[in-house]
């Protein structure tokens, strides 16, 4: 689903990753993180797709919301596990959405 | 491949789409657009994945580069065709990358 975000400005966290071959626990954790993110104050939506690389873009009201989500304890645990087991490499970009349009 | 972008600030164009069932010409055009984007001044990289939805994030030096790419004639033609045939819905978000990090 394309995220139904409000009028800009708001923030996007672009998470691009390449997975390892370790699958154990990954799917459940990924699902749980989306579920948990949705419950955070300032969360606006999320979009995700994976082929050769995975791209997950989550949308947030402001930098404060992103910071709070980063420090969520369950999320912190998942990130540690991600660095150790699930991701060969990743990049996180924090960006301010200035304009959007669509069809 | 994860895009090798320079130190922020730079810009991201987040293009999220849902395809129709019309395939004719789509793959070639998508490939050609990436090839063409890479040749534009200010282009910094691109990342793409599609499952239920497609996400393509292209990175650009500044808003000027994005505007020039938008007005490229071959790209304009492809966008028209996209609106007419290939995309059921899409959203384009233009965002200023303020921070990035990775592993």
Automatic annotation (TrEMBL), chains A, B:
The keyword Oxidoreductase applies. It comes from the Bacteria. Keywords: Monooxygenase, Oxidoreductase. GO terms for molecular function: monooxygenase activity. InterPro entries: ABM_dom (IPR007138), Dimeric_a/b-barrel (IPR011008), Jasmonate_Hydroxylase-like (IPR052936). Residues 10-78 form the ABM domain. Pfam families: ABM. This is Antibiotic biosynthesis monooxygenase.
